Amino acid sequence: ALYGKHAQNVMKTDVKETDDGYEVDVDLPGFKKDEIHLELKDGYLTIQAAKGLDKEEPEKKGKYIRQERYAGACSRSFYVGESVKPKDVHAKFEDGILKLSLPKAEKPKLPDHRTITIE
């Protein structure tokens, strides 16, 4: 796990319903835009974030007394409905917060004719 026992503090999410859709804010502090991947498949929107340490850094003199930065990945999925298409989802990443805008899934329409024939 990316954050071990602190995993519950990762990807904290707020979901707000508006008249025509939903606004989702996901906390992803310390991640860069290119470390975040969104996928919409079978009605599920999956947010994945992967972080790696820079191993190409030249060795510096001295030894670590404490090292808390590490590499790993985390993900979270939300069911958004099968009528939502990737072009309908708008995403923006700013100041460690991923902001998503999604339309509401279309409700199935009932047939206009509701009479029942009695035999």
Describe the protein's architecture and organization.
- This protein is an all-beta fold.
- 0% of the residues lie in helices and 39% in strands.
- It has a 4-stranded antiparallel beta sheet, with no helix packed on it.
- β3 and β4 form a beta hairpin.
- The chain is elongated.
- The termini are far apart.
Q: How is this structure best summarized?
A:
With 119 residues, this protein is mostly beta strands.
Sum up the structure in keywords.
0% helix; 119 residues; elongated; single chain; mainly beta; four-stranded antiparallel beta sheet
- Could you tell me how far the N terminus lies from the C terminus, measured between alpha carbons in angstroms? 62 Å
- The global form is elongated
Strand content: 35-45%
Task: Flag low-confidence runs.
Answer: none
The H-and-E topology, N to C, reads as: EEEEEEE
Biggest sheet, open or closed, and with what strands and sense?
4 strands, antiparallel
- Helical segment count: 0
User: Tally of extended strands?
Assistant: 7
What number is the mean pLDDT? 82
Could you say which structural class the secondary elements and strand pairing correspond to?
mainly beta
How is the largest sheet built, in terms of strand order? 1-2-7-6
Radius of gyration (Å): 21 Å
Share in helix: under 10%
What order do the helices and strands come in, and which of them pair?
Layout: E1 13-17, E2 21-27, E3 36-41, E4 44-51, E5 72-79, E6 90-94, E7 97-103
